[in-house]
Structure formats: C-alpha cells, structure tokens
C-alpha cells in the first residue's frame, strides 16, 4: 500500500514556504486537536518521554504524512513517511511520534538511512504490534495519508567524518532492536558507495559484522536486504542470523547465514579488535548487559560500546 511520496513532500514544501515555523505547520497538517492534545500530554509525561528525558532532542517538531505501508512480518509493519524538507537525522536515532487523537507519544527508531531522506524526502519506521497506544494505532488505524508529527532524538548514532580514524563496526541486534542498526548498516553502505565514486572525500570504514537474534526466520526483519548488502560489499559486510525458537525448516537461501541458538561469545570475540572496533547494541536490556560484559572481558573499552535499550 503506497501513495506518491513526492506529491506529499511537495505539499509539505508548499506549506513550509507559507509558514516556516514548525508549530504552525504542524497545526496546518494535523488540525486544531493536535495542539490541544500536546498541552494535555505536557502535564503528564508518557512512558517514552520519561525514559528518554535525559537524551538529546532536536527542538523542532515536524509534520509528516504516511505514504506507504508494508507488512514486514506477522507482527511488524513498516511505514514510509514523507517529511518536512528541514527534517534531518543521524543513522541510529529515533523519533518522538505524535498521533492526532492519541495522548501517548510513541518512540520509534528510524530503519532507513539519511541517504534515503536526502534522495527521496522520506524516512521509514518498522513498528512491532503492541497494545501500547502508538504501536496499536499503527497496526489498526494507520493508513496511507495518515498525518503525524515527529521530533528526532537520541545519542545512539553513527556519523563518521571524512578522513576520520579507521573503524570496524560490530552490530548486535535482538528482535526489533535491528531497526537502528539496519539504519547504520544502510548508512555505511551509502558511505562505501561514496568512497567508490569520489576521488576526494573518503570515509575510513573497514568492516561491519552484524549479529542478529530473533525467535525464528519469519521475525528476522530486512533479512533479504541485509544479505544483498553482504553480497554487494563482500570485503566489508558479514552477518549471522541467530534463531532461538525455529520450528519450520530454514529456506535454502538463508541457510548459509542462519545459526541455531543465541549469539555466542566466540562470534563476538572473532569480531573484536580493541583498537578499531566500535560496537552498537540494541535489544532487550538483559541481552545488552550480557553482551556488553562479554565485550569488555575481551578488552573492548567501555567507551567503544554504544547501546540502545528498548523496553
């Protein structure tokens, strides 16, 4: 299900020229109920806002409109969202997700790259079904054309500078925690392509290894795209998919990448160089804590282990 994102982006740009301030623009797209609901929300912070109160946030709240919906798995929908032309983010960050008529504010990581935003004016969010009102709205009410507002935040991101220090990435994901890491993987592939096409600026990126754990292969989001990236950059990207409750047989094209059981210490150790490795973790808190301890036991400095815990 999709709509021409370009038309929606054009409309947003037309609004922007008429009213450059973010709040009036949000009212134009979301209607008068939006400002009233925001006033109610400010009196009692929602779960996401409380948990991320100490994190960095942009000041601007931008209007946005859903222009595509894809079913990623039985429990996950991916939204393609046309955004205001001033909207920007770094790979790995999340958004405060405001929905007209829903008091709770959602918190969802981007699963697309900053490059897609630059090329097409859209971002993507992959959202798992839950009874929490924002996620429930996505799965039961949201349609192409639905209007929302978003504000970027988060201290968990990968944004290297040209000619920066050499870095190898270790990406460790549990369940829907793949979202920000997939954004980082896509951003890394964009930078590698830029290296190939540019004789000037170069990003000093070595390898990227992804360890991704889920219940079964059905719940492995973006698996085909991840495998394609490994094929496109065989000297840079590798991945292992770990499944813990697989019942059915594994499809032949996935078999070389799928391992039964949890992510092992041996796999982590094989991809750790204390001088070069930068590790990004996202998943359930117990997994993050266990993997962080294992990595430090292998000599990876604490400041080279970055994590995003989702509840």
UniProtKB/TrEMBL annotation:
Q: Name one GO cellular component term.
A: mitochondrion
Organism lineage: Eukaryota, Metazoa, Chordata, Craniata, Vertebrata
The alphabetical list of record keywords is: NAD, Oxidoreductase
Start and end residues of each FAD-binding FR-type domain: 59-172
This one is known as Oxidoreductase NAD-binding domain-containing protein 1
Top-level division of the source organism's lineage: Eukaryota
Q: Which InterPro entries match?
A: FAD-bd_FR_type, FNR_nucleotide-bd, Oxidoreductase_NAD-binding, OxRdtase_FAD/NAD-bd, Riboflavin_synthase-like_b-brl
> What is the organism field in this record?
Poecilia formosa (Amazon molly)
What would you give as a GO molecular function for this chain, any one? oxidoreductase activity
Pfam families the record matches = NAD_binding_1 (PF00175)
């Amino acid at each position: 299900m999709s709509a021409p994102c370009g038309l929606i982006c054009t409309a947003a740009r037309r609004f922007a020229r008429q009213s450059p301030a973010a709040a009036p623009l949000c009212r134009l797209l979301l209607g008068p109920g939006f400002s009233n609901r925001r006033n109610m929300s400010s009196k009692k912070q929602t779960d996401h806002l409380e948990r991320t109160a100490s994190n960095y946030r942009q000041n601007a709240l931008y209007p946005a409109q859903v222009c595509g919906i894809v079913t990623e798995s039985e429990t996950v929908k991916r939204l393609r969202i046309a955004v205001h032309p001033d909207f920007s983010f770094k790979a790995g960050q999340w958004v405060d997700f405001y929905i007209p008529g829903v008091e709770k504010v959602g918190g969802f990581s981007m699963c697309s790259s900053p490059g897609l935003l630059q090329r097409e004016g859209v971002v993507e969010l992959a959202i798992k079904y839950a009874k929490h009102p924002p996620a429930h709205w996505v799965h039961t009410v949201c349609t192409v054309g639905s209007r929302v507002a978003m504000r970027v935040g988060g201290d968990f991101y990968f944004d290297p500078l040209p000619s920066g220090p050499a870095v190898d990435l270790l990406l460790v994901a549990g369940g829907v925690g793949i979202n920000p890491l997939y954004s980082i993987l896509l951003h890394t592939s964009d930078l590698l392509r830029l290296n190939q096409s540019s004789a000037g600026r170069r990003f000093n990126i070595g390898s990227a290894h992804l360890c991704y754990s889920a219940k079964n292969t059905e719940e492995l989001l973006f698996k085909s795209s991840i495998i394609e990236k490994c094929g496109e950059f065989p000297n840079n990207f590798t991945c292992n998919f770990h499944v813990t409750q697989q019942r059915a047989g594994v499809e032949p094209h996935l078999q070389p990448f799928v391992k039964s059981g949890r992510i092992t210490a041996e796999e982590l150790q094989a991809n750790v160089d204390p001088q070069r490795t930068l590790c990004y973790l996202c998943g359930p808190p117990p997994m993050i804590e266990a993997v962080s301890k294992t990595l430090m036991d292998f000599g990876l400095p604490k400041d080279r282990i970055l994590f995003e815990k989702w509840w």
